[in-house]
Each structure stands twice: as structure tokens, then as C-alpha cells.
């Protein structure tokens, strides 16, 4: 993930189409968001996730991963197709297959997916030094020495560290994170997100993601699939992007001005015509979220790679059904129609 200078945020249109959250349904609850004991999940003998009850760190009442009117929770199933949809899909790869870049176990000896370290109250803050200090939130960050690193301790990739502080209802996110012997950390960049608010980062600022967005917000989680519903957009990558970003993104990561390339923050959805009825349970829940809430372009990477949590409760055989989808099954939508304020993630209600 490389950064470059950012361009202006897209101007909003005063139109109310689709909307944020779902009628009568709450936003997803943070892990440990209910008083202990709280819901967790397990995999049965057929690879299905089933709800269980186990103790976990409790979070304040109403602590969700962003409010229900946040753009991540926007239903985009009725938004109009973006005028540049065909060009953007072609640039990502019309025949390229979708890939769930998450699951259980190891790939080539390393875990895959983005791990989330969940904390309750009492974790001490530690110093983090940043390569991109001018675009990173100052610490201290409550990151324990045992925090999990994307790809494992010896990884040479993006090395995200995502800490979900359920007591403070905040997410602490690092890119290219490396622990030091004294308990401090070094990272390329870092961001802190108050999960009770719709704040966006300063225009032009990166985060732990190239688009300047929260990584945690875009990750499908095993407990969501166990509940049968993901109520938010999913983070994904594309091989080439434009030197531009659109709301709600805050940062670009390209030197190309080719209009055929999608900007950071572009929103796509799985077409309504795609039949997912025969998908196995876990893949079907993810695919339904892609139809209803879509996917947000958040970083440069392999085509149609959809991020999710690293979790042994996933069933890789079921998730692999998503690989049957190709670029032609997706379309870009005009997410600007949801914008209320270019500097806020709050979006229009239906």
C-alpha cells in the first residue's frame, strides 16, 4: 500500500435514494457489545457457524461499529449505476474472479485475513512512532504486545494491526506495524476511530488503509455470518486506481489520472440478477451483503479481493463459492447521492 497526494472530495447531490441502516434493524453490535455473557460462535461438524454463549469483555450500551446512519451501513441496492461503471469494472478485470481474502487456517504457512484484537477496559496506552507521522493520529495507542499482526509475526505484507477497544468504543488501526522490545510499536501510519461518531479523517489524510477509511468497518466477521446477516459494505482492492478519491474516502494512492480507473472510495455492488440461492450458508451471507451494502474500494491490490477477519470459525470450503463470481457480476453505483456533508460519514435516510 503506497500513498500519494490527494485530490478534492466529490460534491454531493441533493437526492435521497436507498439509505443508511435498515428499517427497524440496529447497526451491528460490537464484539462484546452486550453485557457479559455475550454471543459468540462456533463451527459445527458440517462447517456451519452456530451461536453460543461465552463470557467476553463488555462494552458500553449502544456501542456499535459506527452509527446506523453511517455510510458503511448504507443500503445501496437501489442506487443508480454510476456512469463510469463499465470502464471501472473493465479496469479491475471483467473476467477476473472474486476472491475472499480471509478464512480459517494457513495459506503457505501463514494465516490469512485481517485479525482483530479485541480489548476491554484497562489496557495501557503505548507509544507508536510513524513513518507517515503528519497523517497519523498521535498516541498513545492501547496495543498489547500480544496484538495479532496480519500475516503473522514474520509477515512482509501490509501487516495491519486492528485493535477494537470495546470499553472506549474505539478502533485503533495500524499499517505496517512492528513491535519493539520495550512494548512500543513502529508503523507506517495509524488512525483512531470513535465508533460512536460519523467523523471522517482530515481531507487528504491516509489511515491504516490507502483510502483513509477504517479497516475494521469493512471486515465481514464470523459472528455476523452466524447471525445470518452482514449489515455493512465490505472492503476490497483493485490492481490500479486513479489519483483521486470520492466520499467517504479521504486519500488517493496512485499517480495515474486515467479516468477509466476507479478512485479510492468508489462503491460497487453485486448485481441483483446474480443468483446466490445455491451458495453455501457462509458465502450466501457475504454475497447478500455485497448486493445490499456493496463494497468500497479501499486499497491497491489484487482484483476483486474482498477482506474479512482472520478467524478459525470460517469454513474455507463454503467461502470458496464466492470465487465463482467475476467482475461482470458487479457494477459501480453513484454513492454521492447518499452524502449529506463532504466532511461527515453520515448519510441520507430513505
Automatic annotation (TrEMBL):
<protein>
    <recommendedName>
        <fullName>Lipoprotein</fullName>
    </recommendedName>
</protein>
<feature type="signal peptide">
    <location>
        <begin position="1"/>
        <end position="23"/>
    </location>
</feature>
<feature type="compositionally biased region" description="Low complexity">
    <location>
        <begin position="50"/>
        <end position="60"/>
    </location>
</feature>
<feature type="compositionally biased region" description="Low complexity">
    <location>
        <begin position="26"/>
        <end position="42"/>
    </location>
</feature>
<feature type="region of interest" description="Disordered">
    <location>
        <begin position="20"/>
        <end position="60"/>
    </location>
</feature>
<keyword id="KW-0732">Signal</keyword>
Amino acid at each position: 500500500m503506497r500513498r500519494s497526494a490527494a485530490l478534492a472530495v466529490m460534491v454531493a447531490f441533493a437526492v435521497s435514494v436507498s439509505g443508511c441502516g435498515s428499517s427497524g434493524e440496529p447497526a451491528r453490535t460490537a464484539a462484546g457489545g452486550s453485557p457479559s455473557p455475550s454471543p459468540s460462535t462456533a463451527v459445527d461438524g458440517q462447517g456451519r457457524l452456530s451461536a453460543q454463549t461465552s463470557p467476553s469483555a463488555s462494552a458500553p450500551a449502544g456501542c456499535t461499529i459506527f452509527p446506523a446512519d453511517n455510510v458503511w451501513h448504507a443500503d445501496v441496492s437501489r442506487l443508480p449505476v454510476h456512469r463510469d461503471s463499465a470502464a471501472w469494472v473493465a479496469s479491475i478485470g471483467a473476467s477476473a474472479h472474486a476472491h475472499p481474502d480471509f478464512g480459517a487456517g494457513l495459506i503457505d504457512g501463514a494465516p490469512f485475513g485481517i485479525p482483530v484484537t479485541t480489548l476491554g477496559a484497562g489496557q495501557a496506552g503505548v507509544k507508536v512512532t510513524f513513518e507517515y507521522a503528519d497523517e497519523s493520529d498521535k498516541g498513545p495507542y492501547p496495543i498489547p504486545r500480544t496484538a495479532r499482526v496480519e500475516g503473522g509475526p514474520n509477515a512482509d505484507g501490509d501487516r495491519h494491526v486492528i485493535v477494537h477497544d470495546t470499553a472506549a468504543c474505539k478502533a485503533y488501526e495500524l499499517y505496517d506495524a512492528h513491535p519493539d522490545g520495550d512494548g512500543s510499536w513502529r508503523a507506517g501510519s495509524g488512525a483512531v476511530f470513535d465508533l460512536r461518531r460519523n467523523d471522517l479523517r482530515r481531507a487528504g489524510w491516509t489511515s491504516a488503509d490507502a483510502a483513509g477509511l477504517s479497516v475494521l468497518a469493512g471486515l465481514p466477521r464470523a459472528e455476523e455470518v452466524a447471525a445470518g446477516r452482514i449489515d455493512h459494505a465490505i472492503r476490497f482492492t483493485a490492481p490500479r486506481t486513479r489519483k483521486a478519491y470520492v466520499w467517504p474516502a479521504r486519500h488517493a494512492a496512485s499517480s495515474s489520472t486515467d479516468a477509466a480507473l476507479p478512485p479510492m472510495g468508489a462503491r460497487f455492488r453485486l448485481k441483483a440478477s446474480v443468483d446466490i440461492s445455491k451458495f453455501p450458508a457462509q458465502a450466501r451471507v457475504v454475497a447478500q451483503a455485497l448486493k445490499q451494502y456493496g463494497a468500497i474500494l479501499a486499497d491497491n491490490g489484487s482484483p476483486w479481493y474482498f477482506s474479512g477477519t482472520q478467524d478459525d470459525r470460517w469454513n474455507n470450503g463454503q467461502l470458496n463459492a464466492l470465487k465463482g463470481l467475476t467482475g461482470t457480476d458487479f457494477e459501480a453505483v453513484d454513492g454521492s447521492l447518499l452524502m449529506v456533508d463532504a466532511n461527515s460519514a453520515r448519510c441520507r435516510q430513505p
